[in-house]
Write a structure and sequence with these properties.
Number of helices: 13
Shape: globular
Strand content: 15-25%
Order of helices and strands: EEHEHEHEHEHEEEHHHHHHHEEEH
Number of strands: 12
Strand order of the largest sheet: 1-2-9-6-5-3-4
CATH class of the largest domain: Mainly Alpha
Length: 352
């Protein structure tokens, strides 16, 4: 088992290894005294793991109330969020209780946001069951739901009290979800490490899950410690997301988040290479690794439609927008461009 300590406004550990769900009650009891736990999960994850988590929590002395919602990005909205918060009230959770988010990124974002707002904030424990949530969304305290106008437009910063990443859960992931997480891991390697990227080129990510998750969490840990509230360096973590979020929205969320990020990463990489910012060799390697991993690198959605969707992205600042652009593997830069120019960047990246 690996342990990564995150030093943010509220410090916490991220534990990575097999068998952690079966031990979650005892491990949570070390940081939260027995109380009421609201176990939030979706209709796909709950049948697999909710009983195991409930048993472990109850054995450790916690009272458990379970809330389930329909799986999928379409549930990450204000209506389901309101149902979640109402569930907390109906079960009389107080300020000393906590929410346990069992599932992928949608569950972590939704449950974390509910915990952040209910009674002005109660504790949250993240129990990620997907590779994407393990390497990215369960760590760092960003919580949010979507609006019809765009992704993650309503949310808050709310650090978890503990993150338990049970790598055994990744064995049940459908291939599409595993690839989705691989996209976020590749993004992390492009940002942080030529060495990690080179390993991914030779060893499939699913064959080195614990190492990959640990490396990604360690990188994100440093970024969050230096820029918890996303005013500077943390923007780098949005590599591929401006175009990716637009692809998700315009495609009706037919692609997973990771697949859409892969498209976005490929588009900005090709655009950066076309404009002399990214070396041609680095661009070639990035796109090749995405393709080798089985991820999409193009979209049939037109540049005009994507451009209109991207104008609602939360990374827009008035008439400008920040793009994260690779220069070399392990080195990226932030470029603030006029929002009106974004369509040109998309076309340089191969979007028609």
């Amino acid at each position: 088992m690996r342990t990564v300590r995150v030093e943010a406004s509220s410090a916490y550990d991220v534990l990575i290894g097999p068998g952690l769900l079966g031990e979650c009650g005892a491990r949570i009891a070390k940081v939260i005294a027995p109380c009421t736990a609201a176990l939030v999960s979706d209709s796909n994850v709950a049948p697999l793991y909710a009983a195991r988590v409930r048993e472990s929590l109850e054995t450790a002395g916690f009272r458990v109330a379970e809330f389930r919602f329909p799986a999928g990005e379409r549930s990450k909205n204000l209506e389901v969020w309101a149902e979640t918060v109402s569930f907390l009230a109906e079960n009389r959770l107080g300020r000393g209780d906590f929410v346990a988010a069992l599932g992928g990124g949608v569950t972590g974002d939704l449950a974390g946001f509910a915990a952040s707002a209910y009674q002005r904030g109660i504790r949250c424990v993240q129990l990620p069951t997907t590779l994407l949530s393990a390497v990215d969304s369960s760590v760092g305290g960003k919580t949010a739901v979507d609006l019809p106008q765009g992704k993650n437009l309503v949310g808050s910063f709310h650090q978890p009290s503990l993150v338990l990443c049970d790598t055994d859960t990744l064995a049940t992931l459908p291939d599409v979800q595993l690839r989705s997480g691989c996209a976020e891991a590749i993004k992390c390697a492009v940002l942080s490490s030529e060495e990690l990227f080179a390993r991914m080129e030779t060893v499939p990510i699913p064959d080195m899950l614990e190492d990959t998750i640990t490396a990604c969490v360690e990188y994100k840990r440093g970024v969050v410690a230096r820029d918890e509230f996303d005013t500077g360096e943390r923007a780098f973590l949005n590599l591929g997301h401006t175009v990716g979020h637009a692809v998700e929205k315009c495609g009706g969320y037919a692609l997973t988040h990771g697949e859409a990020v892969a498209v976005g990463l490929a588009v900005v990489t090709r655009a950066a290479a076309a404009r002399g910012i990214c070396s041609p060799r680095a661009a070639e390697r990035i796109v090749a690794l995405l393709e080798k991993t089985g991820l999409p690198v193009t979209t049939d959605i037109g540049a005009t439609e994507l451009f209109e969707a991207a104008l609602s992205d939360k990374k827009r600042r008035g008439d400008s927008i920040r793009l994260i652009l690779p220069e070399e593997i392990g080195r990226c830069r932030i470029e603030t461009v006029p929002a009106a120019d974004l369509i040109g960047w998309m076309r340089d990246g191969g979007v028609r």
